[in-house]
Amino acid sequence: MTAPTGWIPVALSSEIEAGASAGAVVDGREVVVWRDTSGVAHAWEDRCPHRGMRMSFGFVRGDHIACLYHGWQYDTAGQCRYIPAHPDLDVPQTIKVPTYATKEANGIIWSTLSDAVADEATPGETAEVTPLRSLYVDCPAAFIRETLESASMPGFTEPEGETIFAAVADSVWTLTTGEDRLYIGVQPVNPSQTALHVVIAGPQATYAGAGQAHFSTWLETLRRSLEDGAPEEATSAPMTTAEVA
Amino acid sequence: MAAPAMTEAVQFTFFGSLQADSFQEFATHRARRLDLGYAFGQCSNEAVSVAVVGAHDLVDAFEMACSLGPHDCIILDVERKSGAALLSGKTKENLA
Q1: Is 0.85 exceeded by the ipTM?
Q2: Domains parsed from chain A with CATH numbers
Q3: Quick one: pLDDT at residue A117?
């Protein structure tokens, strides 16, 4: 699998509340996704420069995220600003977490996994979305795509109708049945695991509640079907710590 | 606001069962991370001398990190002397 380029989805916006952090893995690279209390999302390397603890285990205080281990605090540029054991220390500029360009679009948090901002716009931008869920599947992205190309998804507003799959980009797929369309951000976790960040392209007035439950149930059925039918070589034991590191 | 850092110069000698190249690489990485000026003196598989200059707390952090050392080195003793002769009056800026 080649490393993804451009904007890569790393989390559903609605899953990262202000003041919260979470870990994500993109092609084996560990990323912390966090949102400061003013509501801005950030994606960084998930590693404290001090002792290597995952920053995703840390806690957010205002516009700083603090490492769980020794409380070192980093500002939104990744620069360490405060070391509790040395409260009077003017922390040197060399103590910094690598930060990645991050944006939010279509109810999804995207990152380039580098400090460079991708030239292209997020593919297939749509006016209004209803958040659905992130789905973690023990299958390679290529196998999921192959399955979705012939999938039949019952619509919510119109249950009958042909389902049309479209790959807007490597990282964005859509599934459309009648007036209903799922917008899917594809995050390759490793060669045998994929995360799908799914939103409904449409207003919450139409889809919140029953519509979300309808598609969420279908996605769970899809996941079971995918994992049952995954090629033998694609399924593997969960990653070990060494593989993650 | 943080108070101005007190700068000091220290000459360390780390004794033990060392891989000199590995230890130097490790110490260099830590010195750069801690924004310290540094200069190596005599290096062997029994002892490595290194002088550092920078904020007092960060010099202490350097000593702590190097006393653990890389995985292939065992540090048995650390000698610490103030006023590092290896630095010969150099500043942090012209050492790093």
Answers
A1: no
A2: 8-111 (2.102.10.10), 129-233 (3.30.530.20)
A3: 79
